[in-house]
Amino acid sequence: MRLITLVLATLLLLIQLPLWLGKGGWLRVGELENQVSLAQRKTVELKARNAKLDSEVHDLTNGTGAVEERARFELGMIKKNEIFIQILDANGQPNESATPLPPPKPDAKTTP
């Protein structure tokens, strides 16, 4: 009787071994869950990046504010009848502006 119990217990362990350590076992499920959570985090980051790029494309195609801002900061352009004042430091280098520029005025067409 004792031998039968021992054989049955061994068979039970052998049957459950693939469940815990096999190809579809709990360890593999844990690894796959980690991969899924990593992919979801990366997806969230990429969606935020895509939304930012989409917003920038929308601003550049539909509004003049973004184009005007880029022209001012990157190309140093000014509007007609504007006066440009540049303050130089002791070495003759331009200073950074201490006061931020006002935000661009919204277009009358895009304002609801």
Architecture overview:
By secondary structure, the protein is mainly alpha-helical. The protein is built from three helices and no strands. It has helices spanning 2-21, 26-62, 65-75. It is rod-shaped and about 105 Å long. The termini are far apart. Essential cell division protein. May link together the upstream cell division proteins, which are predominantly cytoplasmic, with the downstream cell division proteins, which are predominantly periplasmic. InterPro entries: Cell_div_FtsB (IPR023081), FtsL/DivIC (IPR007060). It comes from Massilia frigida. Part of a complex composed of FtsB, FtsL and FtsQ. Residues 22-112 are periplasmic.
List keywords for this structure.
membrane; single chain; 112 residues; cell division; rod-shaped; FtsL/DivIC; mainly alpha; 3 helices; transmembrane
Helix content: 55-70%
What does the largest sheet look like?
A: none
Q: Radius of gyration, Cα only, in angstroms?
A: 33 Å
Question: How many strands?
Answer: 0
Please report the number of helical segments: 3
Question: SSE order in H/E notation?
Answer: HHH
Low-pLDDT ranges: none
Mean pLDDT: 80
* Straight-line distance between termini: 88 Å
Gross morphology: rod-shaped
Structural class: mainly alpha
Strand fraction band? under 5%
